[in-house]
Specification:
Elements: H1 3-15, H2 20-31, H3 36-41, H4 51-86, H5 107-121, E1 125-126, E2 132-133, H6 135-138, H7 150-153, E3 164-165, H8 173-180, E4 184-193, E5 205-215, H9 220-235, E6 241-245, E7 251-260, E8 277-286, H10 288-293, E9 302-309, H11 310-318, H12 331-336
The site of phenylalanine has 11 residues, from strand 7, strand 8 and strand 9.
Length: about 350
């Protein structure tokens, strides 16, 4: 074979290569010790000395061509191997955006943080309360002495050591009065527990945000102002409120504050159960006995207190029909009201 024939033969042989071994054999056949190109170099000896360098260059060029062709065949074989490995597996499109599961804050946390920001902007301090409380703080210090019938309203989880799971955020009133003295403006959100029969609107665990303002000349109109302000900011529009008489031993007078249903503007809808109003926030002027027990001079100071039903507010904001969903650990349910 002359050089041109060798190259033609190589091209033909290369086409039929399907494996690494075959490729290696091909290399040996052409570039190996007794390969065609090595053999043909021997012809050089018989050539005219002038022609030798020209022939040498031709053989080298042919060698290079063969090397290159072998190199690209090796790459092709690699690519085919990967293709085969991926066959049967799901295709992967590396350019698709990542659809990773991300978590989000719980609706209770979102609204609680919103309320905190709103009250902060109105000059209130924020306090945390204990979940395990003494009977004194939960009841006596807010004017609910032993054997008072109001204790029945709040079925209590008692602990073996005589302490209890706080039944309302009012359990922190006494400690906070003693910490701040008068005047003060504080809100204290917290989780509360009651040994209740559980249904769509009652759970044994729920959230409240308690607020207290103590100063000279504080009146119920201050309370109405702050509640209206807070609700209007939460709902992003003007919200009307109304007061109805309510009884709690720790306030005198006591009220139930309702807010005009922000969804139907009082016309009546599912959310307000066609009443136009939503009961949201028991409140009142702090009973002088409670102030006294908190070390406040009742000659000089009065105050209001409210116990906003945070769980209820959250249900309203996010249109959640069952309070038990708020304490659920079921991701399917939580994703239903996932808010980014
Ligand atoms: N602590 C009361 C409750 O949970 C609510 C309340 C707070 C009422 C403050 C009046 C003043 O039922």
């Amino acid at each position: 074979m002359n050089l041109d024939e060798i190259l033609l033969a190589f091209d033909r042989d290369l086409e039929s290569i399907t494996s690494d071994d075959e490729l290696q054999n091909l290399r040996n056949n052409y570039l190996g010790k007794s390969g065609h190109l090595t053999t043909i170099m021997r012809v050089m000896r018989d050539l005219d000395p002038k022609e030798r360098p020209i022939f040498g260059q031709k053989v080298n060029a042919a060698k290079q061509k063969i090397e290159q062709a072998l190199g690209s065949m090796r790459e092709k074989l690699e690519a085919r191997k990967i293709e085969r490995a991926l066959k049967g597996t799901k295709s992967i499109d590396l350019s698709t955006p990542l659809r990773e599961e991300t978590g989000s804050l719980h609706p209770i946390t979102i609204i609680e943080q919103k309320i905190i920001e709103i009250f902060k902007s109105m000059g209130f301090s924020i306090e945390d309360g204990n979940e395990v409380e003494t009977e004194y703080n939960n009841f006596e210090a807010v004017n609910v002495p032993k054997d008072h019938p109001a204790r029945d309203m709040q079925d209590t989880f008692f602990l073996d050591n005589g302490e209890l799971l706080k039944t309302h955020t009012s359990a922190s009133q006494n400690r906070i009065m003693r910490k701040y003295g008068a005047p003060c403006k504080v809100i204290f959100p917290g989780r509360c527990f009651r040994n209740e029969d559980v249904d769509a609107s009652h759970d044994n665990t729920f959230f409240q945000v308690e607020g207290m303002m103590i100063n000279e000349n504080v009146s119920i109109s201050n309370l109405i102002y702050f509640m209206k302000e807070m609700l209007s900011k939460v709902f992003g529009k003007d919200v009307d409120v109304r007061l109805r008489p309510g009884f709690f031993p720790f306030v005198e007078p006591g009220f139930e504050l309702d807010c005009k249903c922000p969804y139907c503007d009082g016309k009546g809808c599912n959310v307000c159960k066609s009443t136009g109003w939503i009961e949201l926030c028991p409140c009142g002027m702090i009973h002088p006995k409670v102030l006294e027990m908190g070390g406040i001079d009742t000659e000089k100071y009065q105050g209001f207190a409210f116990g906003l039903g945070l769980s209820r507010l959250v249900m309203m904001v996010y249109d959640i029909d069952d309070i038990r969903k708020l304490n659920s650990s079921d991701l399917k349910i939580l994703k239903d009201f996932k808010i980014k």
